[in-house]
Design a protein that fits this description.
By secondary structure, the protein is an all-alpha fold. It is built from 19 helices and four strands. The protein has a two-stranded antiparallel ribbon. Strands 3-4 form a two-stranded antiparallel ribbon. This is Sodium-dependent transporter.
Length: 465
Amino acid sequence: MEEKKRHSFGGSIGFVLAAAGSAVGLGNIWRFPYLAAKDGGGLFLVVYIILALTFGYTLLTTEIAIGRKTKQSPLTAYTKLHDKWGFLGAIASIIPVIIMPYYCTIGGWVVKYFFVFLTGHGADAAQDGFFTGFITSQWEPIITFVIFLAVSAFIVFRGVNKGIESTSKIIMPILLVMILGIAIFSLTLKNTNDAGEVVTGLQGFKIYIVPNFEGLTIGKLFTVLIDALGQLFFSLSVAMGIMITYGSYVKDDANLGKSINQIEIFDTVVAFLAGAMIIPAVYAFMGTDGMSSGPSLMFVSLPKVFAAMGVAGNIIGTIFFAMVLFAAITSAVSVMEAVVSCIMDAFHTSRTKAGTIEGIFALIVGIIVCLGYNKLYFEFKLPNGSTAQILDIMDYISNNLLMPIVALATCILVGWVIKPKTVIEEVEKSGCKMGRKRLYTAMVKVIAPIFLILLLLQTLGIMKL
């Protein structure tokens, strides 16, 4: 049976929490603190906040407005905007298809660590080689991946209101309380290092929020800018079809400008708290050496920190991985919903059929990703110089390559073809005024495209930082 009437969010709160839930994911929790520590703490924060209020605001506004104006998923929305730009919808739709299998694989890793701490075996996770031993085993990563995928799919199958909106209304407030609680706890930590010095979480927090201008050069500042730009794609869930999909579920009488501002604030606060939660704790117990990139921060460094806390560490670890699991699920749901929505709109099929197709595809490819660490392991050199295997290659293609391309092409379409007034009029449709109108026009036409070109050149290894 076909879905003839497009579902919509019951209210603006449901939309804001669902969109914020999509934005607050693994990228925020492990990538933001690492980049902040690497790029001079407060310096990165200042650059990030400025970009969030300008560059991020522009992409977020554009995508949500496109979604509500067309009432379509990304696959068909671009064609509705301009009949010669349908190819952009196809590219935008491929991104969540690529992301879903490997994101659920990482979600499975979180499931594993949550159960390890929940059952009181957190000390095991702190042992050298525990993470590597887990992901290189043949069956366990596949089992945890399937569990995570099944939970995400269940929420999507329930639909926009009963699934995505109702789940977000429950999970997001709990998530915020958990992050805030752990952040406050991190500030109270004290530890005596090998040199006999007392190191505190507050010292780590100071490193996090106070800009470090030592040795600052134009090149270093440029690196911070590129890192912050790349992080915004993770933080705001833009250029992957999600915000167009969620925007298509927003009612015409909703105050779009207000909702966008709330999503910005929510996401920036959570990103900041993620840093306040992780950097002070890691600094107190491991110094700056513990702030390694990507999965190793969450799955190697932090379990060691929790183990060093003693009895309390197992409890804090359980709460932490429960929080990460909530964040990962809300993001995975949004990624899957973008794909399901595309299938429904393009082929006029039911949610059940669309969800089943995407679920089966994600299951098959996700198993291949899991096996990429054992049976199917190989190494490949990416254009940016890093060594990769299956998961890294998929991440590079979707996040580093296709997302900047989609964002750049969308800016050209809106800025120069259909004109910024198309988006501005959509935002102001419900009678509200768009506060940053001039900024939006300048960003979408000129500044954002320049930033995106620089990001692409760096990704392709053409421009070395």
